[in-house]
Every structure is written in C-alpha cells, then in structure tokens.
Amino acid sequence: MEFLIFLTKDSQEILKLLERTNIAIIENPSPCWQNRKLFGAFQKERRRLIICTNNINKSKRENKAFLINETLNHEAVHVAQFCNKDKPFGRPANYMRLSPLKKEFLEASYKISRNRRKEHEAYWLEDKPRRIKLALNKYCLKGKT
C-alpha cells in the first residue's frame, strides 16, 4: 500500500491498533474512483476503512503526506466511534472548536454520513493522535492483548 511510506510514527501506531480491531484497510477501492473528492471513509457495514491515496495525490491541496495522515486518523476516529456502539464519545461540540477550513469539510462530510456530531468529533480529533490511540484502546481493544 502506497500510503504506508507517508505515515508518521503516531499514524503507524494508529494503523497497528486498527489492524488489531479486525477492520480491513483498503487503498483506492471503487468508492475512491466513483467520487474523486473522497479522501477516505469507514464503511461500518463492510468493516473496512478506505483511504483514497490517488484522490489525495491528485488534489490541489499541498502537503500530501499530511493529508494521508490526517485522513487515516480521521477514519480511525470513526472506527473507535463504531466500537463505542456507533456513538460519539460525548464531548460537547462547543468544546471542540474547528478551524473555518475544517468546518467547511465538516459540512461536506455531513452530506455523506448524515451524522454531524460524529463528523465534528472526528475532525476535532484527527490531529490529536494520542487521543485517537486512547479511544481505539478503550472502545475497540479493551481486554485484547
């Protein structure tokens, strides 16, 4: 998988935790080709996290490595939410301040997921890898060694 070479140490640790959850991690499957604006998704019914490296590479945004890490982390939050009975973790939205750009992305993601609360939480946490690792351990890997 091409995206692996771009992962930071934190994202590599998140990937290892994701692998332990029995969630498949797929790069550039058909949903990426059907929606060129899609960078990633968690498909809970198929128990798979997808990352659209081709779309990220073709985007006009700078720093592709940053986008790959941010996308993996964002989708990892959705995996942890799924393990938490498909619910957000409970932090009030007014505590989770988002930049104007992330608010814009939130609106686009909401149109797909139809769950503003979970998307807001994922955008807030995507640059907080320590918290993501804690959430994956707490909700997905409790009791697993």
Commentary on this structure:
This protein is mainly alpha-helical. The chain has seven helices and three strands, in the order αβαββααααα. The radius of gyration is 14 Å and the shape is globular. 33% of the residues are buried.
Question: Which helices and strands, and how do they pair?
Answer:
Elements: H1 9-20, E1 24-27, H2 30-34, E2 40-43, E3 48-51, H3 53-58, H4 64-83, H5 100-113, H6 116-125, H7 129-140
Parallel strand pairs: 1-3
Antiparallel strand pairs: 2-3
Helix pairs in contact: 1-4, 1-7, 4-6, 4-7, 5-6
Kindly summarize this structure in a few lines.
This protein has 145 residues and is mostly helical. It has helices at 9-20, 30-34, 53-58, 64-83, 100-113, 116-125, 129-140, and strands spanning 24-27, 40-43, 48-51. The relative contact order is 0.17.
